[in-house]
């Protein structure tokens, strides 16, 4: 069975197909390839027990050497694009979608998967944390989460596009990136952005699925986000954070413990967004004009503790 992945934003449009346990996608010829990034990620994981089980296991891959620009030239297309894309085939072990889980099961797989944020510290940013890339598998009667699909990822020493490159799946991108400055490449991608994407993913799955089944459109409160431009989506997300009472689902739509955790997480995101807004406002009228307020990553453990220290996190963690 073939299907398209959710729309992603990158400097060049990427299209991904899946068939069984195989994935076919067009990647930029001048980027570090996904197999090379996965080898680097595996190397990092082998030295850290907390993440070694959360790395995709690549069984086989192949790269077709002729870029699309060469194909266009051979077909006589006038002024073919230089560089172009190349076709990759990747075969991995069987993985299951995280959207099949809910409540405590979803939370446990999701929170353990965040160990992969370590890769950002070691120079490998995923850049597309989204529900379609959150998978899991069974190991020793336990569900193990996998952050999959590294086709938009980058390494700190990449010779090609990186740093301020605009990538991701819009509804799950960090608010800091869903701004005019973010879309102009003036906001550096940091690993706290991937952490925020994890939070939006949990909210999206919890509010859009019930018992692993996608809810009817009228019951999916965030659906519109997937149809908007990046900046428009950012504005909608900010409106959502400032009007959570109006957005709250009924008791029959979601269990109370999960909703309490979502509210705690939304409050953290709102406070962080407000803090960045006022920091930019102050810098625009001072000698620091033009400096990025997020030019350096804060301590990830301190950022994560804002979520893990919440009452909602504690309740879900101890839930049987």
From TrEMBL:
<dbReference type="InterPro" id="IPR040976">
    <property type="entry name" value="Pkinase_fungal"/>
</dbReference>
<dbReference type="Pfam" id="PF17667">
    <property type="entry name" value="Pkinase_fungal"/>
</dbReference>
<dbReference type="InterPro" id="IPR011009">
    <property type="entry name" value="Kinase-like_dom_sf"/>
</dbReference>
<feature type="domain" description="Fungal-type protein kinase">
    <location>
        <begin position="118"/>
        <end position="205"/>
    </location>
</feature>
<protein>
    <recommendedName>
        <fullName>Fungal-type protein kinase domain-containing protein</fullName>
    </recommendedName>
</protein>
